Structures are given as C-alpha cells and as structure tokens.
C-alpha cells in the first residue's frame, strides 16, 4: 500500500512540472495532432494530465483507488485528443472533461456498483447528485425530488429511485484502516473548501463558456437564468423571487426560463456546455 501511494505521489509531482499550454500553443498542437503528428498528440496529452488527477479525485470512495481512476481518466483524455475539433472555438480541456468523466463513470458502473447500472442511468445519477448539491438542504426530500425532476426534465419517481440506488451504507463515523492507522471514514473525505489550481482552471473555462452561451440569449432570458441558477454570484432564486424582481408572475418567469433553456439546446450552443455535464 505504501509503495502504491509513493508511486502515485511521484506521478503527481512529475506531471505538475509539465508547463500548461497557451491557447495558441494548444491550437497549434491540436491541428498537428489531427493531421497525425504523434509528438504533438503526446505533448497535448501530457500538458493536460494534471486535470485528469483533479477530475479523478471527485470519484474517490466510490469503489476504485485513485490510481485506477486516473488510469481510466487518462484513457478518456486520449480519446478526447482523437476527437477534438479545434475549429469549434473552445479550449481543449473544456471538451476533454466530458470524455474523462465518461470513461471513469463507465469503469465505476461496470466494476464497482453492487447494482450495475447502464451508462445512461449512471449519467443520470451523476446529474441528479449535482442538482441536489446545487439545491442544498432547504427542501424536504419529496420537494427536492420534484425540483430536481423539473430541472432535469425527469420523472420524480425516477429521481427518487436513482437516489435510493445511490445511497451509501457506510457511516461517516465508521472506522476504516488507512496508511496503517484507524480513522473514521469522515476523516478521509477530501476537504473541497479550497479549489486546487487545476479545478480553478476548469471552473474558469466553464464560466467563460457559460457566459458566451448566455450572452446569445435575449436579455431577459439571460437575467432570468442567472437568477434562477445562481449564475450571477448569489444563491439560486425561486420562481417567485425572480418574478418579484421583474414584477412578473411566477408562471411568466417559468415560461421565460423554459424558452431560454430551449434556445440553449441548439446544437451549436449545447456543444459548448455538454463537456461539463457527466
């Protein structure tokens, strides 16, 4: 166990020394890689390995060791290089995130769950958990299921079923042995209050792409979405709260929100954001 940790720590230190690419360098390498230049492909892959580490850490304690999660994520990174189209106009990592997460999710769903889930259901489960975290704990469970279902356009009973499947039986107070010492499970959970540089870079790319897509909407649609989902730097607001701000009814705000979401589903706009949704 100690040797495995030592190897992993050494790997993380090694890839941290690889310099990040500028947008111009990335574009040049992507063009060369697409034309079959293996050296350019390898350089593009190596410069983004650190991001795989950061994404893999999000899936710790789901049944696979970090080393295995990173290995699966690296496969997704390689696939992303093979499929990346530099002419789409967005940074490589914003595209690669989707492939990295998909390969990790596929491995988890096939190898680790007591109840094996098809990939589409594994995807739904991740989306549901993200929506639940965004809502926080201010709602009752049934209200939460209904709101998540509305946000993701799913049936509430399906949301409830997926949450039940995902419930972990391990208590945070349960004792586990790690590095030769007995600790509570809660002590081993990563503190995510402070973002790593890699995570900040991903968030920066995501915010930039979201802003580009939102700016293509009508002004009132953009403002409604920013308020509803907390994209203006404050907590998400209810339909009633947004309606009060605009002096409109709750139903009218819902209509504007649905119209905005419909406009965002245009393939050209959706492709910019789909890489962030696992």
From TrEMBL:
Q: Which UniProt keywords apply?
A: DNA-binding, Sigma factor, Transcription, Transcription regulation
Q: What is this protein called?
A: RNA polymerase sigma factor
What phylogenetic lineage does the species belong to? Bacteria, Pseudomonadati, Spirochaetota, Spirochaetia, Spirochaetales
Keyword Lipid biosynthesis on entry: no
- Annotated Gene3D superfamilies: RNA Polymerase Primary Sigma Factor, Winged helix-like DNA-binding domain superfamily/Winged helix DNA-binding domain
A molecular-function term among this protein's GO annotations:
sigma factor activity
Domain RNA polymerase sigma-70, chain residue ranges per copy: 68-81, 238-264
Q: Which family does it belong to?
A: Belongs to the sigma-70 factor family.
Matching InterPro entries, A to Z?
A: RNA_pol_sigma-70_dom, RNA_pol_sigma70, RNA_pol_sigma70_r1_2, RNA_pol_sigma70_r2, RNA_pol_sigma70_r3, RNA_pol_sigma70_r4, RNA_pol_sigma_r2, RNA_pol_sigma_r3/r4-like
CDD domains for this protein: Sigma70_r4 (cd06171)
Single GO biological process annotation from the record: DNA-templated transcription initiation
Taken from the record, one Pfam family name reads Sigma70_r3
Q: Which PANTHER family match?
A: RNA POLYMERASE SIGMA FACTOR RPO (PTHR30603), RNA POLYMERASE SIGMA FACTOR SIGD, CHLOROPLASTIC (PTHR30603:SF47)
Gene source species: Treponema rectale
Q: What does this protein do?
A: Sigma factors are initiation factors that promote the attachment of RNA polymerase to specific initiation sites and are then released.
